[in-house]
Amino acid sequence: MAGINTTSVNRQVKDISQDIYAAKLQRDEMQTKSVNKDESSGLQNAVAEKLSDKLNSYIL
Questions:
Q1: How many CB atoms lie within 10 A of CB 44?
Q2: Which of 5, 34, 35, 51 could form a disulfide with 29 if both were Cys (CB 3.0 to 4.6 A apart)?
Q3: Would the pLDDT of 16 be above 80?
Q4: pTM value?
Q5: Are 20 and 58 in contact (CB under 8 A)?
Q6: Is 34:47 a contact under the CB 8 Å cutoff?
Q7: Which 3-state string (H, E, C) describes 6-53?
């Protein structure tokens, strides 16, 4: 009886997990950008920049 190639399965799970993580970051970034940004809202701007940086570093 042939065994399951766990290395291949683990790699697939890791790839799917990374895709899900990237999609969540992208969703969060889009939601942050859709909120009206006010110049006095430094925290919102900081969060939007942080999400953007994370997404860009993940993709690159």
A1: 15
A2: 51
A3: yes
A4: 0.49
A5: no
A6: no
A7: HHHHHHHHHHHHHHHHHHHHHHHHHHHHHCCCCCCCHHHHHHHHHHHH
